[in-house]
Design a protein that fits this description.
Layout (H helix, E strand, L loop, with lengths): L24 H11 L14 H11 L11 H9 L8 H13 L14 E6 L2 E7 L6 H19 L5 E5 L2 E7 L3 E2 L3 E2 L1 E4 H9 L6 H10 L7 H15 L10 E4 L6 E2 L33 H20 L8 H18 L4
Antiparallel strand pairs: 1-2, 2-4, 3-4, 5-6, 7-8, 8-9
Helix pairs in contact: 5-9, 6-7, 7-8, 8-9, 9-10
């Protein structure tokens, strides 16, 4: 790679700036299900070597996450792509969900595991999460959590929409790596930045972002935004704040700017792997890396989330105990935050 300062860099493995483009998570498995045999690759993308990832990107890298095109074929396919037209949600969403579940809809994501697909609506390029078309407690809880994510993101200023078609619930989220019909923006996850510049996979978002700021890799304004997101997540019971769930956008190189929030929801209420339904939360942790002012601000956001969630009629009756738990959770956290001054 030749940088803007004309310095050439060589990578022994997959360069960090390609890390997020590799097929991963739910959509990565869907991609592998469709194309692994054609590319003579293992069926599980987690087993792919770096060279395997590059092979996949060279073959189908014209519509990956971010703004990079790897190889001449990707460039040619991008230039030949027709301008997208908005889909009809009522018919397209269930069909796309079915295709995604069958491994027939490759796309891009921030590495998550929740069922999803990418498409284009009159709101632009979107990522759509969806529940299974099943009538059981597990599917019901995931339907409730999609609404909870919708409300949490609204509190954080991200406009999403919820649709119900044929017993399935769909959460439509704008993609922050796409602009207009064909425009693109570079994006890097905290996981990729940590792996390249820090190497502290056990650290929390605020700790890592502060280190990245010190190194000049992300903008100083990201410190407050990251701390606010982490604190808000703690207060609403988000137990899934891994490093793939925070990203940064690159418009003009470093320092990178904090991307809009995504995957912010009370995952503490998610069904367990064995199908158990959980209605309780562990007490919120209040790490000292986050200032008292940020905790007070985040508490206000969390209280706003609780109010609109309590007034929302889209939740099932079985989500009521979760809201009761959240109320106690916030009250307990408030008593400790008050001691921070």
């Amino acid at each position: 790679m030749v940088q803007t300062d004309s310095v050439s860099l060589y990578s022994d493995g997959l360069p960090w700036w390609l890390f997020d483009m590799r097929p991963q998570g739910y959509l990565g498995r869907a991609y592998a299900s469709t194309y692994a045999a054609e590319l003579a690759l293992p069926a599980n993308p987690e087993q792919w070597a770096d060279a395997d990832v590059v092979r996949a990107l060279l073959a189908h890298g014209h519509d990956a996450i971010g703004n990079l095109l790897i190889g001449e074929r990707a460039r040619e396919r991008f230039l030949a792509m027709p301008e997208p037209t908005p889909v009809e949600r009522a018919t397209a969403f269930p069909a796309l969900a079915l295709a995604a579940g069958a491994g027939e809809a490759p796309g891009s994501s921030a590495g998550g595991e929740q069922p999803k697909f990418c498409t284009y609506t009159e709101r632009g390029h979107v990522l759509v999460k969806f529940s299974a078309p099943d009538d059981n407690p597990v599917s019901e809880r995931w339907r409730d959590l999609l609404v909870a994510e919708h409300l949490a993101l609204r509190v954080l200023g991200v406009e999403t929409e919820v649709f119900d078609f044929g017993g399935q619930r769909f959460l439509e989220i704008p993609r922050f790596d796409r602009v207009g019909q064909l425009g693109r923006i570079g994006v890097f996850s905290l996981r990729a930045l940590d792996a390249e510049f820090i190497g502290n996979a056990r650290a929390s978002w605020p700790v890592l972002v502060n280190s990245l700021i010190t190194g000049g890799h992300v903008h100083p304004s990201s410190a407050v935004g990251t701390a606010r997101l982490w604190a808000f997540g703690m207060l609403i019971g988000n137990t899934d704040m891994h490093h793939g769930n925070l990203s940064f956008i690159s418009s003009h190189g470093r320092p990178y700017q904090l991307a809009p929030a995504y995957d912010i929801l009370p995952m503490g209420f998610a069904p367990r792997t064995g199908g158990a339904i959980v209605n309780e939360l562990r007490p919120a942790s209040l790490p000292e890396v986050i200032s008292g002012d940020i905790w007070h601000e985040a508490l206000g956001l969390a209280e706003n989330f609780f109010v609109i969630a309590s007034d929302c009629e889209q939740f099932s009756a079985n989500f009521g105990p979760c809201l009761d738990t959240l109320r106690r959770h916030l009250d307990e956290a408030r008593s400790r935050i008050a001691r921070l001054g």
